[in-house]
Amino acid sequence: MSFDEATDPLKTTHLFFGPQHPGVTGNMSIEMWFDGDEITKAVTHVGYLHRSFEKLMERRLWIQNFPLVCRICVPEPDINEECYALAVEELDGILIPERAKWIRTLVLELARLGVNLMAFGGQAGTIGLGTGAMWGITLRDFILDLFEELTGARIYHIYITPGGVRRDFPEGFSKRVLHVLETIEERLPEFDRLILNNSIFLKRTVDVGVIPPEWIAEYGLVGPVARASGGVRDVRKDAPYEVYRELDFEVVTESGADIYSRALIRRREIDLSISLIRQILDRMPEGPVAVPLPNFTEWRVPPGEVYTRVESSRGEYGYYVVSDGSLKPRRIHVRGPSYVHAVPLLERMLVGANIADVSNIMVSLTTCPPEIER
To answer: 285: which DSSP letter?
Structure first.
């Protein structure tokens, strides 16, 4: 018997959660059916924000995509710049300077740190603990100040380019990065007391939104979602890019498989990013930060195809790029973790859940809707 045949319209409530709801991760909507306060069916709807990036990129010159790709994920734009730059460089045989590799890695970890601060605090905010959300946003703003100084922009940095990075550090920039890290570290114990040791947070997250370990392979789960269920998946270790091979770190994992474990992963990732940023600043070499590129209006990337991937704050993030030797890409496909996390996984997790836990479960997956409708 199908769902529709088994549904009693006198007992079932049908409503949309989002896209305007403050508990929704980005501009997306969940269509749900309830029996009492228990969810019996859920369907994810996306496309309320940016969309069709892949086709837009296939109609632009190679260099024109560089300021476009960062808009696929607003909280963490730099991973798209990195993936696109790596793809173009591999296709065209471009070797970037050593200093550019270290700077890129620093930028990626600063972005990851900012996202995890916002996600960790946001997990508390979605159950009504607004102080945690405000603290996360405030500390992230200090990182955005650094990005504004380095790139001229707070959100869309347009900084990692094919051939290197757009500019070198401003004078005294490394000291200001260290000062921000110290400011964040001073507040982290308060974060722990407010959130991780909070009895209400524990009651709302422990054994809620459980993702069994066998679902990791079944759905292709990555990032904190997989690592909180015991999966050891991290592109920085599995397929090192830029200078991650030279940095000292271990993959952060937990085994609780619930919302609390996913929050704990992101809290520990904050410490990891701070450690990696310090290592990078300590070992940053001197030298140029970019190599000359061809005339942008006549730049024909040699024919070929390539898949590049990085570790975003949400897990493996990849670009499949095909060139036919013309002025524009022949095909670009973006593989973000949000698709599997926010569609098949979320729809399965919500069945049987309580309506009060919908945003709590959704936020624990930290999805970017434009990654799905791209």
So the answer is: P
pLDDT tens, residue by residue, 33-62: 988 889 999 999 887 777 788 899 999 999
**Pairing verdict, β 38-45 and 160-161:** unpaired
Biggest CA pair distance of the chain: 71
Measured between alpha carbons, how far is 192 from 267 in angstroms, rounded to an integer? 9
Domain 3-371's class? mainly alpha
Q: How many CA atoms lie within 13 A of 301 on its CB side?
A: 26
Which structure tokens are listed for 58? Answer: 């296939």
Distance (Å, whole) CA 249 – CA 236:
10
How does DSSP assign 157-188, residue by residue?
A: ---EETTEESS-PPTTHHHHHHHHHHHHHHHH
DSSP H helices in the chain: 3-6, 53-57, 78-92, 98-125, 130-151, 173-191, 199-205, 214-219, 223-227, 235-238, 259-283, 338-340, 346-350, 358-364
Radius of gyration of the chain, Cα coordinates, nearest whole angstrom? 21
Residue type present at position 167:
R
Listing DSSP states for 293-333 in one string gives: ---GGG--PPSEEEEEEEEETTEEEEEEEEE-SSSS-SEEE
Query: Residues 322, 337: contact at Cβ < 8 Å?
Result: no
* CA nearest to 212, candidates 229, 233, 236, 192: 229
> So what's the pLDDT on residue 10?
61
Tell me what the mean pLDDT of segment 203-221 comes to.
Answer: 93
Selection from 55, 88, 46, 51 nearest residue 71 by Cα: 51
